[in-house]
Amino acid sequence: MKSKAIKIGMIGLGTVGTGVYEILKEHSQLLAKRIGIPLEIAKVAVRSKNKKRVLKVPSSLLTNRVEEIYSDPEIQIVLELMGNVQESRRIALQAMKRGKHFVTANKALLALHSREIFQTAHDNQVDICFEAAVGGGIPILRALREGFVANRIQSLFGIVNGTCNYILTEMADHGADFSATLKQAQALGYAEANPKFDVGGIDAAHKLAILIAIAYGVSVDLKNLYVEGISDIDPLDIEFGRHFGYEIKLLAISKQSERGIQARVHPTMVPSASMLAAVRGVHNAIQIDGDSVGEGMLYGKGAGSRPTASAVVGDLVEVARNILAGVAYTVPPLGVVGPKVKEAKIEPMGLLRSAYYLRFYAIDRPGVLANIASILSRFGISISSIYQQVREEGREVPIVVLTHEAQEKSVLAAIQKINKLSGIKRKTKLIRIEAKLK
Amino acid sequence: MKSKAIKIGMIGLGTVGTGVYEILKEHSQLLAKRIGIPLEIAKVAVRSKNKKRVLKVPSSLLTNRVEEIYSDPEIQIVLELMGNVQESRRIALQAMKRGKHFVTANKALLALHSREIFQTAHDNQVDICFEAAVGGGIPILRALREGFVANRIQSLFGIVNGTCNYILTEMADHGADFSATLKQAQALGYAEANPKFDVGGIDAAHKLAILIAIAYGVSVDLKNLYVEGISDIDPLDIEFGRHFGYEIKLLAISKQSERGIQARVHPTMVPSASMLAAVRGVHNAIQIDGDSVGEGMLYGKGAGSRPTASAVVGDLVEVARNILAGVAYTVPPLGVVGPKVKEAKIEPMGLLRSAYYLRFYAIDRPGVLANIASILSRFGISISSIYQQVREEGREVPIVVLTHEAQEKSVLAAIQKINKLSGIKRKTKLIRIEAKLK
Predict the structure, then answer these.
(1) Are A296 and B138 an interchain contact pair (Cβ–Cβ within 8 Å)?
(2) pTM score, whole prediction
């Protein structure tokens, strides 16, 4: 065992980078006790060395040339916390080709370039770790590769975007509408100035792609994921949902069916008594159903400087323990041996079988409901409940229909027909239901 | 990489052993893909070779001499699933001294003999794994040693006994009393014929000792743990608790204070909106508060053949991956380097500061409540709420008092005084409250 420290070169000193720097400093003794040797930040690459920072970093550590990080023979671990996908990709490849272990929190990098990145890690037999890319401080990737390794994952449900969960929780608690709540979330720093990436479901889709890749040992083409955000959610739907015993959550879902792997991100009604319904605010949770273990869930803070940095430092410790033992790549990034993995066969969304919440806006006159019911029936969709709050003859009223399990493409076709009825004045709202979630 | 299989010698073929055998058989290909080499059960030691078993095991694999397992030079991993503490201890030491890696699900073994076991693993540089000993299929030990390694654990709350959680959930749902619910749990196989070990809190205490050892990198003397079971819980207390917004759970609790580490198992009132309150039936959950990650929780099935076997096989895979990489003991069992750890300094229970639920049974006549309040006040205990459901002059009625944070020994002394008042006819019920749990 070498007595000197393990040297880390860090790229990026934003929110997460600052958290990592602070944890390594505050917990240097604790970590040395847990690893057997200290971790040392040897160099930090930043865009501007002279930028004012709250964090005090000795200027001797700072550089604005990333090459200085991955070319430094003393540095054994390159930690990328910069965010930009193309630059990160280039750095990852350069670093690993030089035999550096690579740690990142960059979910877009992994979602878009995992094949190339994992191949390079394998070819150079270096560790590639990215626990912080999904679920912030929640050690879900590690759990999928190790703790749940004895399982075929039958389904996976994730609340993996804190911004969306915060907005939906606030809307549910206060009955406020989406845009007002988004503005409030932005004011509190829980949502970005440009919120599309979060509320549009894209961030959740990146994370889902990574989860699926590890759960099934496959590569995932982002294009094959179905993605729907939360901006169309109406307080009315939250209220109606509760009437039927459901809460609305933005879920990243994957299930194994005979037709392939489901891969979808969309607002979902989950039973109010389920564990996922209890996940409030900016928290994240990933629930799995494994054929050996049954249902399991990991819950925690999905974002923020310290929680994310906690996961990053966990990765650094893993790599450091491996360096001390003289090994690398003992647990492959996708949980299966060898970098050559199959492309995931994703079930086409039209073939999905699900229960549905449908909200029609109809002129309340005789025959409208009969027409709706008759179209649904013609498409093989059977109704489990109907709810109509207030009846006011001749005025527009919401009619809510819950269906039994039906095929997505039939439901969409039926809605298209229903939307053309003379009594229907607005586009029908569709929300998928996961009624069996515990 | 060797192409032949990694050979496992298994001791015990009860509930968990059967689950392990089945998983290794059903998932042999999947596991080989995930490890890079097959796992093979080479021998199984059982008490009686001729016992009728549902599980079909080739008789050539069976032996009733455990020495055949740990003396076999082909066997690299000894898996102990027998249960008996003294025999397990002997086998563990014998196996590790012969260079075998040792996997077990035996929580009592670890709670009672960890010092000796870990020292032997260290001296022989073999892996010692026991994920299944706490929380069944929940990968909590791994999470504490690896995923949350960047954290000082500030507090830890566990629902770690499924029998107790099942009974409390049933009592809450149906208002039934403890003994009737226990009988029902026994009939359903959720409780043992001799339930003391579970409902008395001893099983939870064993698990808490292991959790504390790993969370803080210490050794724990079971004698120092405060243990109180659930047999005194009355449906009335569950009802009153709900009135104040609390559910009652049997929690294993550890917190760091200036006076040491708290280590206690007892019925606890937790906020109804907290994640732990949502853990129902036989499920387990462990919630931690880490100084970096904030609060996190792992949830799942805490017992049963397959869930427990899922954790055991996870351990087998970890050891197998290490064997292939030519390493062992890379992550030390207590998460800190070296086998020499300090004995945990446990805070004496009398010094605990907590909020309390106190239920008095008093004759409803003028002055009784004033007497109670005056005694509490004399002991420095301040009241946050009082609840008295029905007033019937001259008859015995329950009076519920919730206190602000107070010192345990003052509360006990005050109760002793109150129990002697002429208007008090029964022993006062005390339940600790964790009001800040999220």
Answers:
(1) yes
(2) 0.96
